[in-house]
Amino acid sequence: MEVEFLGGAGEIGRSAVLIDDSLLLDYGMASTSPPQYPVGTVNPDAVVVSHGHLDHAGAVPSLLSGSDRPPIHWTPPTRDLTLTLAADTLKLHGQTPRCPFTNNDVRRVTEVSETHSYQESFTAAGYEVTLFNAGHIPGSAHVLVDDSEVQRTSDTQSDDGATRLLYTGDFHTDSQRLVDATTARPDADAVICESTYSDVAHETRSSVEESFVETLRTTVWQGGTVVVPAFAIGRTQEIMLVCAAHDIDCYVDGMGQRVTEQLRHHPDFLRDGDALRGATANARFVDGRDGQRRRIADQNTVIVTTSGMLSGGPAMTYIPAIRDRPVNTIAMTGYQVEGTPGRDLLDTGSAEIDGRVMPVSAQVELFDFSAHADRAGLLSFLSAYRDSEVLVTHGDRCGAFAEELRSDGYDASAPELGDTVTIQSPRS
């Protein structure tokens, strides 16, 4: 099995892995300026998408811009979320060279889409593929690829045994309010493993939630407003569930509203579908008409809004409206990539909002609501694969983590962008 790394190797963003020039796993984009896409040219026979985040699914429609129509396999939530992301990308970049696909390409996605449940094996490009719950966001999946059938039907008889490759996608080993943790550990000869938080120990989720709720209540009690920048997919719904569980009223603005409605249609991929329905009833959705956002910003309330890194969305209205009062709070809920306004705000107390650098007097706090496994979670997961080859990706210290794994007895390496790695079954 030949595995080529077209993105996500030694980096976070634009994940893409090509197997035997035939089966493509993920095809994402990095939300840099300008956006970055996977390297090389691909013409896959089939595509499997692990989950509906921009860095894993953002460039999928571009695979249909030519005459080819490879089937795209994913869970139902991943399909819906990818289409939502595509619409948002077209809105932001559709009239510029930054967008590699068109509305027609997005429509073609629905024509070739094939959805699957967890642990339901299917055939893609001749491989047997099975998806397992990855515990990251609704619909997120580990992807197990078995080339047994390819080996049997190959014109060139190989002496190699059949190979099983596990692509982890993004995963979490602790449960969140929105989704259950991954418990799947399927047998595999090789594992392509994410490493986003390979040197981080997450604070316990209960402790993070307790601190977050205390900050919200204290700010509102003191007469302030809380703006909670949150990623539309996964994080907005998690924060809604937290607020509902602690009887905290909140407004919800931005793309997270549409995503919430989509996820409610897939209760089988949620930890508790009834809880999300209750959280939706607890929240007040904002339509943004007639100065509504500025009026809400003047209230003693909680506002959950995109974007999570302050790079656009309704946050561009709320942050300027509350920034000059120390009684107000900006509660960041996720990792802030270096160079984003959110990261600048944390580091310097100022951020560029709509082209203007603004000092912020409001309190700024960061709460670690991560949906990724931390170092302990990664090591716990990989303990099931001590006899497998481990290929470390999706992180800013892939090489260092691979070296740490090797020192602990693993057969581990960190492929570089554009590398091709040959994987053979130890049974061969």
Features:
seven-stranded mixed β-sheet, alpha/beta, 428 residues, 13 helices, 2 domains, Rossmann fold, Metallo-beta-lactamase, Chain A
> So what's the overall shape?
globular
Which residues sit in consecutive blocks of at least 5 with pLDDT less than 50?
A: none
Strand count: 22
Largest sheet properties: 7 strands, mixed
CATH class of the largest domain, please?
Alpha Beta
Which architecture of the largest domain does the CATH hierarchy give at level 2?
A: 4-Layer Sandwich
- Structural class based on helices, strands and sheet pairing: alpha/beta
Into which percent range does the helicity of residues fall? 25-40%
Quote the beta fraction: 15-25%
Multimeric state = single chain
CATH superfamily of the largest domain: Ribonuclease Z/Hydroxyacylglutathione hydrolase-like
First-to-last CA distance: 12 Å
**CATH level 3 topology of the largest domain:** Metallo-beta-lactamase, Chain A
Count of helical regions: 13
Average predicted confidence as pLDDT: 94
What number of domains? 2
| Strand arrangement across the biggest beta sheet | 6-5-4-3-2-1-22
Radius of gyration computed on alpha carbons? 22 Å
3D structure, described in words:
- With 428 residues, the protein is an alpha/beta fold.
- The protein folds into 2 domains: 250 residues, Ribonuclease Z/Hydroxyacylglutathione hydrolase-like (Metallo-beta-lactamase, Chain A); 162 residues, Rossmann fold (3-Layer(aba) Sandwich), CATH 3.40.50.
- Helices cover 29% and strands 21% of the residues.
- It contains 13 helices and 22 strands.
- The strands form 4 sheets. A 7-stranded mixed β-sheet has the order 6-5-4-3-2-1-22.
- Helix 2 runs antiparallel to helix 3 and helix 6 crosses helix 8.
